[in-house]
Design goal:
Layout: H1 2-19, H2 23-39, H3 43-60, H4 63-79, H5 83-99, H6 103-119, H7 123-136, E1 142-144, H8 150-159, E2 164-166, H9 170-178
Parallel strand pairs: 1-2
Helix pairs in contact: 1-2, 2-3, 2-4, 3-4, 4-5, 4-6, 5-6, 6-7, 7-8
């Protein structure tokens, strides 16, 4: 019920924007509609409306709008299992949203890039994106209690400025095995 009500409001706002011949407002309305459809699992419709919003943002030269459309197209592509396309779209929107200081959007980008890389079996790249996302979220240091590979330890140490601690409780393991 809430989805239908939200969709009705967005469609009404798009109709009003079209009456006013405001392509910028139409673009933002289509972006909102695409986001609603994305979160409702209507991926083909979402992709279509996001593509329409992107075209309008491009004609208006609206950088943040274009970046937002790329972001949600990338997330949609991830949900559809098209990880190659997702990675391309998310990488494309990152500079504009990073420059704008939109940390929430940047976290979504990093999560999407990490997810896409993981599904493409690019595990080191995926870990790097997830580590960046943790850092962006305000995590100052990381403590793990299992053995990570040297490359993962190095990456976390770099991202967190040396504030990565990998505890290896081998004495506990040895004691467990002895008894």
């Amino acid at each position: 019920c809430e989805y239908e009500q939200a969709e009705a409001y967005v469609l009404q706002s798009i109709a009003l924007a079209r009456e006013q011949q405001s392509s910028g407002l139409v673009a933002w309305g289509l972006l909102s509609l695409g986001r609603l459809e994305l979160y409702d699992g209507e991926y083909q419709q979402a992709d279509q409306h996001l593509a329409e919003s992107l075209a309008l943002f491009q004609s208006e030269g609206e950088d943040i709008g274009m970046a937002s459309a790329f972001l949600y197209q990338g997330i949609t592509a991830c949900h559809q299992g098209n990880y190659e396309r997702a990675g391309t779209l998310l990488a494309r929107c990152r500079p504009a949203l990073e420059a704008a200081g939109d940390t929430i959007a940047l976290a979504r980008i990093l999560h999407g890039l990490g997810t896409a890389a993981r599904h493409k079996k690019e595990l080191q790249t995926a870990r790097s994106h997830f580590a960046e996302m943790l850092k962006l979220a305000g995590v100052d240091s990381v403590l793990t209690v299992h053995n990570h590979s040297y490359s993962v330890q190095t990456m976390f140490s770099q991202v967190f400025g040396g504030q990565f601690y990998n505890l290896i409780p081998y004495e506990i393991y040895v004691d467990y095995l002895r008894h």
